[in-house]
Design brief:
Layout (H helix, E strand, L loop, with lengths): L8 E5 L4 H12 L3 E5 L13 H12 L3 E5 L6 H12 L4 E4 L11 H26 L2 E6 L2 H5 L5 H21 L4 E8 L12 H6 L6 H8 L9 E4 L3 E4 L18 H6 L1 H4 L11 H18 L6 H8 L7 H4 L7 E5 L1 H10 L10 H4 L14 H4 L1 H4 L16 E10 L7 E14 L3 E12 L2 E13 L26 E6 L4 H5 L12 H6 L9 H17 L6 E8 L8 E9 L2 E8 L4 E11 L7 H5 L6 H23 L1 E9 L2 E10 L5 E4 L8 E6 H8 L5 H6 L4 E4 L7 H4 L7
Parallel strand pairs: 1-2, 1-4, 2-3, 4-5, 5-6, 6-7, 19-22
Antiparallel strand pairs: 7-8, 9-11, 10-13, 10-15, 11-12, 12-13, 14-16, 15-18, 16-17, 17-18, 19-20, 20-21, 22-23
Helix pairs in contact: 1-8, 3-4, 4-6, 11-12
């Protein structure tokens, strides 16, 4: 689609001729309202005339465009911006273009005043207007003389490079307000270059070759910010480059110029050069080098290696961050919050089955299981991560990558919950960093639920950390067959506006201008809202809307959903695990992947159910094993170092599958199919299992009689005594 500037207001300084004129005409042609500013000075900077600006305005209006002239000096920045406000009510884009062919007769102050201070004054006058409307595009015009220097142009070169420094800082300060600032260094034929360039070269460097880049940089779709572009017929982006250098300093010793001389070639070698993009990146390697010198005192060290060893390549140091606990958070709620959440994830009185989650007077009134993410998210929302040592990150680059939620009992419909968060691990994915945040939520002293937030920090990788973690709850791909069930559910236009009332106040989901800063055409739906939709689809399809059947859910967020789109949840049931994949029906784009919901059996594992004979008796034993692993998992892993698989049968058919992992992390218990490697697998009936546990059946006799079958390393079965201390015979 062609780029339109309809509704945008553009101020072009120096627009009476040359590049400025070309910009003004091009913006007007594409629908922008243009303020054509030109003082009307001659090529030496003298005189004043309105003719140049008036002529360009006439050209624009003759073609049906909208434009007004302004004849003020850039030193009167407020007047320029007021012209825009008076004529069109706003200001969105500023282009600074002004140069002098012969500067030797002008003093330093005049050059600085017109080029550098003039740009400052015009931009300052527009800045708050841009902030309030959360949109702005600024183009500063530098010059090759500023980038590289030029004989006889010291004052001009200094001013032009000063513009680049100004633009880079504006890019940083304006980013959160969707104000982008870029710098161009154009070479174009004009009245200011025709006296110093051959006629054929002037003809080949037409201003219209520069304008397309400027229009793109000023468009709302363009997210480039803080760039420096050389512009001829070809367009080039420039960046700073730095050699790896060489450390010649030694701890507690003075540096000598001879050491610099002897390593000069290495100091100046651009092989494997780094490209720092900001002050933080520039300083990080310096800090790491100082740390290296102070700790080891080595001479002749490559700074890149020092940076990696110091773990400071991206502002992340896992050795400091992992294990850090965030301040506890409390969450007080009643039935109102439970109902509001249910509405936020799409429940409606249109469906009679939903009433038990929407009406506090319903005999089976309960809380949706995925409400468990709400009390824990305060750890993420409250800025707690910013206080963690070793996590020096840009929080505007944080994305929610994955989510795991496990319930230990059905959630209450009112009360006070306390959440305790810990940095479980930090991973280096190269293009970014992954932070695993474990959050345990308690009601009093009782653990109610556990969440693992997996957040991706764009651009924070490269610190030399590990890529994977045994602590992460991994996503699991669905089976390669047609789904067992598919549910299609429509979100409403106000779905995000409703869901945010449950506590996720990120303006990305409500404010169009904020969403535009993230590159979205409109506010997007919360990932955890789609998460809630998918979970309740499974709950209804396979658990009869019974919250007590819900054990855990894992999802990976892939793409955003726009409010009003329809969600299509595909489900595959395998044992007590339901694999899910969620798509946007209108686009077929997958939005939740590698996802699953684990359910309890129909009778659960409570003592009441077991005493009634409704479920497997072994469920209670494995529940006890799970509790012991949680209490002393790390100790058990050191003693056992093995993975045990159990297949429990009933009436000759496999009824349950359990895996006891005492090899990785701090140990874990898995119910259902297991994707990892198992060292030994035991198959036994539910009845015989309980006979062995209670000491009524000798396990060796069970083995030799065929009641207990073992596959894999049979000797490892002896270590099971460590797991159930009270049931040594098992």
């Amino acid at each position: 689609m062609s780029l339109s500037f309809e509704g945008r207001v553009v101020l072009v300084t120096g627009a009476g001729g040359g590049l400025g004129r070309e910009y003004a005409l091009a913006f007007a042609e594409r629908g922008a309202s243009v303020i054509v500013n030109d003082l009307g000075a001659d090529t030496k900077g003298g005189g004043k005339s309105s003719a140049a600006a008036d002529k360009v305005v006439e050209e624009i209006r003759a073609k049906g465009g909208k434009a007004v002239a302004n004849y003020d000096s850039v030193e009167d920045g407020e007047k320029l911006i007021q012209t825009a406000l008076d004529a069109f009510g706003r200001i969105g884009v500023i282009l600074r273009d002004r140069s002098f062919a012969r500067t030797s007769d002008l003093d330093w102050d005049l050059i600085q005043r017109v080029h550098l201070r003039g740009s400052f004054l015009v931009t300052r006058a527009a800045w708050n207007h841009m902030k309030n409307q959360k949109f702005g595009r600024i183009i500063m015009t530098a010059s090759a003389a500023g980038i590289y220097g030029n004989f006889g142009q010291a004052n001009y070169s200094a001013a032009k490079l000063g513009l680049l420094g100004l633009a880079n800082t504006l890019a940083i300060e304006g980013r959160k307000y969707n104000i982008h600032c870029n710098t161009i260094a154009p070479v174009a034929g004009s009245r200011l270059t025709e006296t110093v360039m051959p006629p054929d070269l002037v003809a080949s460097l037409k201003p219209e070759y520069v304008a397309p880049l400027v229009l793109w940089l000023c468009h709302e779709q363009c997210q480039e910010n803080g760039g420096l572009f050389e512009v001829l017929r070809q367009k080039h982006i420039l960046r700073w480059e730095r050699t790896q250098g060489y450390i010649v300093r030694q701890k507690n010793q003075s540096m000598k110029p001879e050491a610099i001389r002897d390593h000069w070639e290495k100091i100046c070698d651009f092989t494997d050069a780094t490209k720092p993009a900001n002050v933080q990146e520039s300083l990080q390697s310096m800090v790491s080098v100082l740390s290296q010198v102070e700790s080891q005192g080595d001479v002749g060290v490559n700074p890149a290696a020092a940076a990696a060893s110091a773990g400071l390549g991206s502002g992340i140091d896992p050795t400091k961050a992992v294990g850090q606990k965030l301040p506890p958070t409390t969450f007080s709620f009643n039935h109102t919050q439970c109902i509001l959440y249910a509405l936020g994830v799409g429940m409606s009185t249109k469906d009679p089955d939903h009433l038990r989650f929407l009406y506090e007077g319903h005999p089976d009134f309960g809380c949706l299981p995925t409400f468990g993410v709400i009390p824990s998210q305060a750890a993420m929302m409250g800025g707690g991560l910013s206080s963690v040592p070793g996590l020096n990150i840009d929080f505007t680059q944080v994305l929610h990558g994955e989510q795991y939620l496990e319930l230990y009992k059905p959630l209450p419909t009112s009360g006070k919950l306390t959440s305790e968060a810990t940095i479980a691990d930090v991973l280096d994915k190269g293009s970014g960093a992954v932070i695993l945040l474990d959050v345990n939520t308690y009601s009093g002293n009782e653990l109610v639920c556990y969440n693992q937030f997996s957040v991706f920090v764009v651009g924070a990788g490269g610190f030399g950390g590990k890529r994977s973690s045994e602590k992460a709850k991994p996503p699991v791909p669905p089976p390669k067959r047609s789904p067992d069930a598919v549910v299609i559910d429509s979100t409403t236009r106000d779905q995000a506006a409703l869901y945010r009332l449950s506590g996720d106040w990120n303006p990305l989901h409500i404010d169009p201008s904020f969403a535009a800063m993230g590159g979205f055409k409109a506010p997007i739906l919360h990932g955890l809202c789609s998460f809630g939709f998918a979970a309740r689809h499974v709950l209804k399809q396979f658990a009869d809307n019974d919250p007590s059947r819900f054990k855990a859910i894992k999802v990976r967020f892939v793409k955003p959903v726009m409010p009003g789109q329809s969600l299509q949840t595909e489900m595959w049931k395998e044992g007590n695990r339901v694999h899910i994949q969620c798509k946007v029906k209108e686009t077929d784009a997958v939005v939740l992947a590698g996802a699953y919901v684990d359910l309890h059996g129909t009778s659960g594992a409570s003592p009441e159910n077991l005493s009634q004979g409704g479920g497997l008796q072994s469920e209670l034993v494995f529940a006890e094993i799970g509790r012991r692993i949680k209490d002393a998992g790390s100790e058990l892993v050191k003693k056992v170092n093995a993975v045990f698989g159990w297949e429990i049968t009933k009436d000759g058919k496999k009824a349950a599958q359990w895996t006891i992992d005492l090899k990785s992390g701090s140990g874990s218990l898995h119910k259902g199919p297991y994707s990892g490697k198992v060292d030994v697998t035991m198959t036994v009936s539910d009845e015989d299992f309980m006979e062995v546990v209670q000491g009524k059946l000798n396990p060796q006799k069970a083995f030799f009689s065929g009641k207990l079958k073992v596959r894999g390393n049979i000797m490892l079965s002896q270590k099971l005594e460590v797991i159930l201390k009270d049931y040594a015979k098992l």
